[in-house]
Design brief:
single chain, mainly beta, Rubrerythrin, domain 2, 3 strands
């Protein structure tokens, strides 16, 4: 199945690079609420 490109109106979807938790709520500081690790926005194409 081909990967689809996210659309600009897609809600943010983050994954913590330390504990792998995924969250959908917006965060201002991009830090995981569980472990304090950096959150990567998965809706941004790489």
């Amino acid at each position: 199945m081909p990967l689809s490109e996210p659309t600009p109106d897609t809600d943010p979807y983050y994954e913590c690079l330390d504990c792998d938790r995924r969250i959908t709520e917006a965060v201002d500081d991009r830090l995981c609420p569980d472990c304090g690790g950096y959150l990567e926005d998965l809706t941004v194409p790489r």
